[in-house]
Amino acid sequence: AVVSTQSTGIEAKLHKMKTNEEELEPTDMLGHLIEANKAKDGLQLEEGETAEEQLEFVVDDVLTVFLVMDNLVKQISMLFLVLSEYPKIQDTLFAELRTKEIKTFEDLNNLSYTEKCLLECLRMQPALTRGIRVLSEQGAQRLGPYALTNNRARILFSEYVMHHNPKYWKEPQIFNPDRWQEGFTPEPFSYMPFWVGARGCIGKHMAMMMMKLTLSVLARNFNLQPNFDQKNPPMASQDFAVLRIKNYIEMYVTPYVR
Questions:
Q1: Nearest alpha carbon to residue 211 among 82, 117, 89
Q2: Which residue stretches of 180-246 are H helix?
Q3: pTM for the whole thing?
Q4: What is the pLDDT along the chain (258 residues), one digit of tens a residue?
Q5: What is the 3-class SS of 95-136, one letter each residue?
Q6: HEC-encoded secondary structure of 54-92
Q7: Which residues have C-beta within 8 Å of that of residue 82, sequence separation ≥ 6?
Q8: In the Cβ-directed half-sphere of 96, how many Cα atoms lie within 13 Å?
């Protein structure tokens, strides 16, 4: 239903562009995406063509943006939930965000401590808690000490468990941004907040950029302190494959005076 609705929106946008009802310079996100893809691939808007036939990949772009924004809200909320137990780390994080103004894309790379906090939060509470793969090759396959003979065997794995495995992470239950020092590289498949390989999330760089920008705006304009319901405190839920948060993450928000 989501794809169908978005495809209809793209069709309407294309129609306006064909009939000159749309301004030459796009004024919204969808218009910019279409223009960018036209310029990149030399696309022409032919009569009779539908959005699915000509700009199917634009749907992927739009879905990526929406999924990134949805997970961004959850991950920023989870970061403040984690930081409620580490106020000194939040003070250090906000000090960096308030002293480094973001004017260009390159400025985001200067938020080194912010990136460490985000990477550590994604380790402790990944957006996806588990995944599944289906064995497709014929014949017996080995997975460690196990022999898999069914070519449709389903293999369930957990990013959350790997992210908290003491074999790969020292004191995995501790929120420690300083573990992400320059040059540190986790063991293969021990850190998969965006998955890896061909199935890796194409929006991961956009997600990191948007989270940094969001935190910068918040820190430069507000003070935030936890105000959780003590009887029903917020917590991460492991009941679903996608990160869910039980109960509200309520915060005291006051203006930040420079």
A1: 117
A2: 204-221
A3: 0.73
A4: 444 444 555 566 556 655 555 555 666 555 655 565 555 454 454 555 554 555 555 555 555 555 556 677 888 989 999 999 999 999 999 999 999 989 888 899 999 999 999 999 999 998 888 888 887 766 667 778 888 777 778 888 889 999 999 999 999 999 999 999 999 999 988 999 887 777 667 777 888 888 999 999 999 999 999 998 888 888 888 777 777 888 888 999 999 988
A5: HHHHHCCCCCHHHHHHCHHHHHHHHHHHHHCCCECCEEEECC
A6: HCHHHHHHHHHHHHHHHHHHHHHHHHHHHHCCCHHHHHH
A7: 121, 124, 125, 175
A8: 19
Tally the residues of the chain.
Answer: 258
207 class by beta-carbon count within 10 Å (0-12 exposed, 13-18 middle, 19+ buried)? buried
- Contact at 8 Å (CB) between 122 and 193? yes
Question: Cα(109)–Cα(205) distance, rounded to whole angstroms?
Answer: 12
